[in-house]
Amino acid sequence: MNLRDKLRGLLVRLYARRVEGHLDHAQVPKHIGVIMDGNRRWAKAAGSTTAQGHRAGADKIEEFLGWCSETDVEVVTLWLLSTDNFDRPKEELVPLLGIIEDVVRSLAADGRWRVHHVGTLDLLPAGMQRTLKEAEDATSDVNGITVNVAIGYGGRQEIADAVRSMLLDAHAKGISMEELAEAVDIDMIGRHLYTREQPDPDLVIRTSGEQRLSGFMLWQTAHSEYYFCEVFWPAFRKVDFLRALRDYAARHRRYGG
Q1: Where, in this chain's numbering, is substrate bound (predicted)?
Q2: Does residue 4 sit within a domain?
Q3: Of 51, 95, 123, 244, which has the most beta carbons under 10 Å away?
Q4: Residue 114: inside a domain, yes or no?
């Protein structure tokens, strides 16, 4: 590392401390959703392979959760693999699945996080399904941040699964379709989502400069605040995280308005 890079790193750390010192910790979001975008573009810019880009993105997760643990964040949802990602070429998808499986094992072994899967299990390989089940069981008693690992996740699919679950539940209880139609409301559907009994995201962060949700938590983000960051996910820094929190704290949230 040359002198210029050292000075730049020092200035960034000093600036991060300044931003952190001015944060209103009473305004920290309880639930943060993260669309971790830009692994492939980061790899291309760095002259690395796509797999190396995904690995660098995976390595950023533990650091990010460490920053969250320094605040009052209670839930973090990490979008690791969408339902659309299954259309990627096999030579990219297979290594990516292996990297994601390593991430889940690492989160469970850390001991600080309660791991919870959100997504459609049926799309995932049997080995991945076992890893997720083992991670959830191993961390069920952990009192730290709940980490939702969104794997095989799509917002439309979640709503479809919620409606299907609601219908099957009504059938099992002997409730007629007419009775269900009378009783169904927002809260009932919410109780069948992947994130039932969790607070909705207060803040959604998307990296890489893309300004869209791409189907991320369509139901839960009705009143969320969004923060779009230009940097690619593997290059996301603590100062970027603190800027997102500062931006969130400065907003006056108007539910429904």
Answers
A1: 38-42, 54, 82-84, 86, 88, 206, 212-214
A2: no
A3: 244
A4: yes
Detail the residues annotated as belonging to a binding site for substrate: 38-42, 54, 82-84, 86, 88, 206, 212-214
Q: What is the pTM of this model?
A: 0.89
Q: Token pair for residue 140? A: 């069920």
- What is the bridge-based pairing of β-strands 75-82 and 146-153? parallel
In a domain, 64, yes or no: yes
What's the first-to-final CA gap in the chain, in angstroms? 50
Which residues define the annotated binding site for Mg(2+)?
A: 37, 225
- At 98-153, the pLDDT tens digits run 999 999 999 999 999 999 999 999 999 999 999 999 999 999 999 999 999 999 99
Distances (CA, A) of 210 to 124, 178, 230: 27, 43, 8
The reply to whether 16 falls in a domain is no
pLDDT at residue 27 greater than cutoff 80: no
CATH number, domain at 135? 3.40.1180.10
pLDDT of 66 higher than 60: yes
Range of the domain at 163: 29-249
pLDDT for position 12: 47
